Amino acid sequence: MIQESLKKQLITENGFNWSCETLKYVGGVDLSFSKNHPSIACASLLVLDFQTLDVVYEDFAIVDLTVPYVPGFLAFREAPVLLELIEKMKKSAISSFPQVLMVDGFGLACHLGVLADLPTIGIGKSLHHVDGLTQTRVKQLLQANEDSSSDIIPLIGDSGSTLGAAMRSSEGSSKPIFISVGHRISLASAIEIVKVSCKYRVPEPIRQPNADIRSKSHLRKHGLS
DNA sequence: GCGACAG
DNA sequence: ATCTTGTCGC
């Protein structure tokens, strides 16, 4: 199976020579779907200056997706076009090529990280039910941890492995975000980077593409939308 | 009681 | 993904 083959190549420890202090460019990828035509999407890759959270690079691609969305197999639908955008930027030798990439979805982050050979962090706005993880279980853990110092709890599956962490990025928010172990990065480092890049609930590298594409497609709603 | 499940 | 509902801030 392709997923198992890729899993063997997954590295869950830091494989980079920079630290949070020297991290300069953090990327984000996302797909935004057309309301009218469900198979048409705008894929985006953008890069933020980690210190200022300003967007320093952006690229888009309009695609017609033929692979359907199947829970657990998101990467087969979304990874190809995202990989294209990454390769294109890499080929262009643009100086702001990201040192780490944020990706929507747990498995997609791992999948894309291995294929692009890039450190990736998975960001989830909702929980992917896998390995015995449930919404209620996470809620209970966060509830129990409410008085404690940390707003971050590890997500440990039935298999005993740590798949990521749930983090309440805004005070009092009942909806946490989910940070997954990606590729070539440790969960601890991933959490640090996400914390710093959170202006709102969703970290900027993931939030910005949505806002940007919105305006872009709104601007060109005459042609495609 | 129904439906649960990244995007 | 998108939609809906609820809460809060403008």
C-alpha termini separation: 36 Å
Strand content: 25-35%
The computed structural class is alpha+beta
Number of helices, where a helix is a run of at least 4 consecutive DSSP H or I residues: 6
Shape: globular
Rg to the nearest angstrom? 17 Å
What does this structure look like?
It is found in: Cytoplasm. Keywords: Cytoplasm, Endonuclease, Hydrolase, Nuclease. Its main location: cytoplasm. InterPro entries: Endonuclease-V (IPR007581). One of its GO terms (cellular component) is cytoplasm. Helix 2 runs parallel beside helix 3 (106-116). The model has no long low-confidence stretch (mean pLDDT 87). Strand 2 (40-49) and strand 3 form a beta hairpin. The protein has an 8-stranded mixed beta sheet, with helices on both faces. The protein has helices at 2-8, 74-91, 106-116, 135-144, 187-196, 204-219, and strands at 25-33, 40-49, 55-64, 100-104, 120-124, 152-156, 162-167, 177-183. It is globular and about 45 Å long. It is an alpha+beta fold and 225 residues long. The chain binds 2 DNA strands through strand 1, helix 2 and helix 3.
